[in-house]
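Lab meeting, item 3. Inverse folding demo.
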């Protein structure tokens, strides 16, 4: 079987990298920080914009979402109809990084991020996925922008699930009660193993056929 050269940009956890490695592919995680997944020999510590030029078959990218995500709307609009121009500048810089990854000279690309702020002006996503579609008992809305790749097909749909992150602030104000997982920021950014496995299996099969 042909081995794909896979770069997983902005990944410290190595969850996606390990999923592709388990299938025998040449996969590397990449971040400006050290990896936390236990395989430093599979990690490239460098700016992703330098690494994407190294002849990859597939790029899966998880660019920072701090200034892009709609979860940060309260800081982007500290007062009604009044935008924070300092934060908007940071968001536009983040968008530039996002779009450079999405438009990289690599045949197959997937970029992942949560629901973005409308003011940032990202292109419409290709697909929205949830962890509970891939065997996990959690909801965490994740958007995928895909280039020459098919949409992921759910592998194990769970009907009883809880929110993974405390994002429903509006619901809380209305008196809704729910439980969510109390985790660190780094832990919250990890790709769920079921999603990582689906990416590795479905996309590698598709690429090798095409």
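The presenter then showed the designed sequence:
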């Amino acid at each position: 079987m042909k081995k794909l050269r896979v770069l997983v940009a902005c990944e410290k956890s190595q969850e996606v990298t390990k999923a592709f490695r388990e299938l025998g592919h040449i996969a590397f995680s990449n971040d400006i920080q050290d990896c936390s997944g236990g395989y430093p020999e599979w990690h490239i510590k460098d700016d992703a914009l330098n690494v994407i030029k190294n002849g990859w078959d597939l790029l899966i990218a998880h660019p920072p979402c701090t200034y892009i995500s709609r979860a940060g709307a309260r800081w982007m609009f500290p007062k009604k109809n009044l935008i924070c121009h300092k934060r908007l500048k940071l968001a536009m810089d983040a968008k530039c990084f996002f779009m450079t990854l999405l438009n990289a000279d690599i045949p197959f690309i997937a970029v992942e991020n949560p629901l973005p702020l409308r003011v940032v002006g990202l292109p419409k996503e290709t697909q929205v996925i949830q962890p509970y579609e891939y065997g996990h008992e959690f909801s965490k809305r994740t958007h995928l922008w895909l280039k020459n790749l098919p949409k992921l097909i759910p592998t194990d749909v769970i009907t009883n699930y809880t929110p993974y992150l405390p994002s429903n602030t509006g619901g809380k104000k209305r008196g809704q009660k729910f439980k969510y997982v109390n985790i660190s920021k780094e832990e919250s950014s990890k790709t769920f193993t079921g999603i990582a496995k689906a990416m590795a299996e479905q996309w590698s099969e598709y690429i090798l056929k095409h």
